[in-house]
Amino acid sequence: MTKEICNIKELSLYLQTSIPEIRKLVREKKIPHFRVGNRIKFDINEINKWVEKLQEETSKNSLFT
């Protein structure tokens, strides 16, 4: 199994969100990430799991509103 690792710019394109928004999520420890030196890196497999979890939470919350 090979890990697919990306940087913040690549993740920004993948998630279709801004780099500042991703940096905010990193600061708040809300998105899975790791550091190589001072560089922030993301494992796409972990990001996909995180997105699925967010989708589940969103759908659960929409049932109660």
Description:
With 65 residues, the chain is of the alpha+beta class. It has one domain (5-63): Orthogonal Bundle (Arc Repressor Mutant, subunit A). Helix content is 57%, strand content 17%. It has 3 helices and 3 strands. It has helices at residues 8-15, 19-27, 44-63; strands spanning 5-7, 34-36, 39-43. Strands 1-3-2 form a 3-stranded antiparallel beta sheet. The chain is globular.
Backbone CA Rg: 13 Å
Order of the strands making up the biggest sheet: 1-3-2
Most strands sheet: 3 strands, antiparallel
**SSE order, as H and E?**
EHHEEH
Number of domains: 1
In the CATH classification, which architecture applies? Orthogonal Bundle
Class by alpha and beta content: alpha+beta
Low-confidence stretches: none
Q: What coarse outline follows from CA principal-axis ratios?
A: globular
The termini sit apart by: 41 Å
Short key terms for the protein model shown above:
single chain, alpha+beta, Arc Repressor Mutant, subunit A, 3-stranded antiparallel beta sheet, 3 helices, 3 strands, about 55% helix, globular
Q: Concise description?
A:
The protein has 65 residues and is of the alpha+beta class. Helices cover 57% and strands 17% of the residues. The chain is built from three helices and three strands.
